Amino acid sequence: MTAQCRLLNQPPAFGSFVRAEWNDGESGRRKSLIAIVYWVTTTAAEAGRRPAPYGLTLEELKREQPQIFELLVTEFTALHLGTIIENAPGYALPPQPPPVHAFVYSCTSEEVRLFTESPRFLRTTLQSIPNLSSEQLTAAAIRHANAAHAKESEYLVKVGRELARQLHDDAPRLQAILELLTGSDSTHFGSEF
């Protein structure tokens, strides 16, 4: 899912949870597609044009070429993880994607907590995305999810166990994610797994 930010250079954070909302035409139910941000770009608003550097500082550009900023847009791309329909998380994609003009919002802490209560979302974050480290994305998503949970250390242990289960045959990847989560060592998770 790619969405345009309302404000230039103010995208959601890497690995943060976002939702696209729409009403299902058949059932009339409100649907939310949950995704995590993995790519941000600022480019020309007009298709086919490329922004060019002017050799000026940001302050000089604002003063001398203020119209430049009206010609740019910031967009972000997010990886689909699943849905929330009537307060029930689902870890599969909906039969149809959100409509083109569906609004995309940052998820609330409650929505993140609800969706990440089960660590099943990790399966998708661990998949390869071209030109992106899935380890970096997974660690960022876990940090955002962890911030939404009241008992952070308990949540990290649960997520750590799920990572160990999914990556049982890929110790270097598991170690890389744990190091990204803890700074440089994996001792925060304890010796429970």
What this model shows, in words?
It is a single chain. With 193 residues, the protein is α+β, with helices and mostly antiparallel strands. The protein has one domain (2-189). It has 6 helices and 6 strands. The chain has helices at 58-64, 109-116, 122-125, 134-148, 152-166, 171-182; strands at residues 2-4, 17-23, 30-44, 72-85, 88-90, 103-106. Strands 1, 2, 3, 4, 5 and 6 form a 6-stranded antiparallel β-sheet that branches. Strand 2 (17-23) and strand 3 (30-44) form a beta hairpin. Helix 4 runs antiparallel to helix 5 and helix 4 packs across helix 6 (171-182). The longest helix is centred in the last third of the chain and has 15 residues, at 134-148. 27% of the residues are buried. The model is unreliable at 185-193 (pLDDT under 50).
Could you give the distance between the termini?
35 Å
For this structure, the quaternary state is single chain
What is the H/E string?
EEEHEEEHHHHH
For the largest beta-sheet, the strand count, sense and barrel status come to: 6 strands, antiparallel
What value does the Rg take, in angstroms?
Answer: 19 Å
Write the layout of secondary structure elements.
Layout: E1 2-4, E2 17-23, E3 30-44, H1 58-64, E4 72-85, E5 88-90, E6 103-106, H2 109-116, H3 122-125, H4 134-148, H5 152-166, H6 171-182
Antiparallel strand pairs: 1-4, 2-3, 2-6, 3-4, 4-5
